[in-house]
């Protein structure tokens, strides 16, 4: 059977991310109203420069947008908040660690959304535990 194993495509990983997202606690998902989840193979060169990454494999995910603490009702229209998952760095991390791919994707989703919304590491750990 090992000859049939393959890394998920971009579309398969994005579908997996949405399934994992639907399994997160309701109150956490409510924080994410309107957030778009996207999967790409690697971050753009601009993102790598901005995040001061040494390699295109350094970044597993990224939140782009305006988090809840920074939003106000007087804001002008802006682009939607997005969470990017970077497939190739995630797969590389998966190959080097003893964790399931789903666990890694869930962890990246929670942390990219959570940090930007001002959640502490303890808050995010509790969300992960409840999602198990």
TrEMBL record:
GO MF, any single term: peptidase activity
Question: What Gene3D superfamilies does this protein map onto?
Answer: 3.30.2010.20
Q: What is this protein called?
A: Zn-dependent protease
What Pfam families does its record include? Zincin_1
Alphabetized, the UniProt keywords read:
Hydrolase, Protease
- Asked if Protease is a keyword of the record, the answer is yes
Species classification: Bacteria, Pseudomonadati, Pseudomonadota, Alphaproteobacteria, Hyphomicrobiales
What is one Gene Ontology biological process annotated in the Swiss-Prot or TrEMBL record? proteolysis
Annotated membrane-spanning segments are: none
Keyword Lipoprotein part of the UniProt annotation: no
* InterPro entries according to UniProt: Zincin_1, Zincin_1_sf
Q: Which organism is it from?
A: Bradyrhizobium forestalis
